[in-house]
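BACKBONE GEOMETRY TOKENS:
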Amino acid sequence: MKGLYIHIPFCKSICSYCDFTKMVSSVYQEKYIKKLIEEISLNESKLNDIDTIFIGGGTPNSIDLNLLELLLNKLSPYLNKSIENSIELNPELINEDLVILLKKYKINRISIGVETFNDESLKLLNRNHKKIDVINAINLFKKYDFNNINIDLIFAIPNTNLLDIKNDLDEFIKLNINHISYYDLILEEKTVFYHLYKNNKLNLVDEDMESKMYDFINDYLKNHGYIHYEISNYAKRGFESLHNLKYWNIDEYIAFGLGASSYLKYDSKSYIRYKNTISMKEYLNNSFIKEKDIISLDERKKEYLMLGLRKVNGVSINRYKELFNSDVLNDFDFQKLIKKDLIEIDNDYIRIKKDKLFLSNLVFMEFVGD
């Protein structure tokens, strides 16, 4: 079974840290949604085995409700059959009409970009909501019996400390929802934060404090009954993100929209990755796919290992053998990482040690370029 990703590139404003494919202008919204529907129609033969759907962005609820319904109506045959139907939302743009519309089209998982409950930090991030908007949005979804809700938070925001992390987590627990994605702030090029940093106008949280924040988050959420199942993701049992697990398990997924990437079986030994154009002009002129890359067997093995090690449980040795008819312990040399005390081999699993998850990039770098 495959996952389906739909990209909505529009936002009301640009966050200080964001480098995703997005735009503020609303001029192209109607043309874009109609072209997106056209792209989906051209690929319907590939959509018979979809079991997760994720509508992301950008900000999907920044577009007019009539346009969102036009898209959801096109997707309705797949939404009706899919197990998990997710959409990303900004809290200040959530209202009852939106919630009713999502309920109508069987959206059953909500992911809200909260980032922090601290109103001052929200200003720094150039977010347009406040803490009260998040509380009101969650209560509204609960009123309509949505019980699979995630919020995204960010740690290591400039000028924050461990007390700020505790305050955010305390607010999260009050919401009584089943999933949280808690990401480390990463300084990306072509962002406002990067520009400020390069001009000595932004003081980043130091790495030692980042590590302490991460450990605090892990301990806090574990003590409140959340399972840490991926480097940045935590859930009550049974509420793990099925769609995101497809990425970490290198399952097939197909994606539509500006800058979207697909990962599909090509032949018995290899897969193919499609990357859509990031040019709105090209996209509206029917030039959807910009890149096609064949993923060889060796590359797929490496991707399976690197993405699988993002999961707290790690990579199954037996599952690797089933997929590739090969032994992962022969295909890769783990001794260096074992000597550095970064990974462990425990029965069927190879995993990053739980107290070293914050250093996961050191592990991944060992496989880059092999």
Observations:
- Residues 164 and 275 are 38 Å apart (CA to CA).
- The radius of gyration is 21 Å.
- The chain has a mean pLDDT of 93.
